[in-house]
Write a structure and sequence with these properties.
elongated, single chain, Butyryl-CoA Dehydrogenase, subunit A, domain 3, mainly alpha, 201 residues, 8 helices
């Protein structure tokens, strides 16, 4: 469980977009896997088998909570936290609290933008880019072709980049902003000096 927890949690979180529900599904997937252990083949890959259980459990939960009029594509899914959440206390002592805050803010931004990707792309992105699963493993776990995995991975990267660029463009407009009190203080100082210089001439 400790070996696979991070991967499986990420995938559940990608599909469900909810931390607590992802944790619940992770537990259910392990229980289901344990119950079926006797039929586990020696030639099967443990990680692939566990991942399939987790994906099926997550999709089942997702389907259950969908409105009846919404269509859910069985496995076109994708997306979780780009960077694993690390408790602040575990961040290296020699890092400043400001650095830790910036890292947390960046992580939150990346997670938020990853959550905005269509589910179909998020999962493939996480499996390939974060968990470093092979195309073959990803295809087998999701029940899709290798060509589809490659296509979704490429599309996910492109969409993710676009989402981040838009966010950065918006933020760049306010970089080194100079307004409000600072602006007025400068204007007053300049006008004051001009007035004084004019009075001396």
């Amino acid at each position: 469980m400790r070996k696979y927890n991070r991967r499986l949690f990420r995938l559940a979180r990608v599909i469900l977009k909810d931390d607590s529900e992802a944790e619940s599904v992770l537990q259910e997937a392990y229980i289901a896997a344990y119950s079926a252990m006797k039929i586990f083949g020696d030639d099967s890959n443990v990680s692939t088998w566990l991942t399939r259980n987790l994906v099926n459990e997550s999709l089942g939960r997702l389907l259950h909570r969908q409105n009846s009029d919404r269509v859910v594509i069985p496995f076109s899914l994708a997306g979780y936290r780009l960077l694993e959440t690390v408790p602040a206390a575990k961040i290296s002592d020699n890092r400043s609290s400001e650095d830790a805050t910036l890292r947390a803010e960046l992580r939150a931004l990346l997670e938020k933008k990853l959550d905005e990707l269509p589910t179909a792309f998020r999962t493939v992105f996480v499996m390939r880019e974060l968990e470093k699963m092979t195309v073959e493993e990803t295809a087998e776990c999701l029940g899709i072709s290798e060509a589809t995995v490659r296509s979704r991975q490429s599309r996910a990267k492109s969409l993710f980049r676009t989402l981040l660029e838009r966010e950065i463009d918006l933020e760049l407009r306010d970089v080194f902003a100079f307004g409000g009190e600072r602006c007025e203080r400068t204007v007053e100082a300049v006008l004051d000096r001009i007035t004084k210089d004019a009075n001396h001439t």
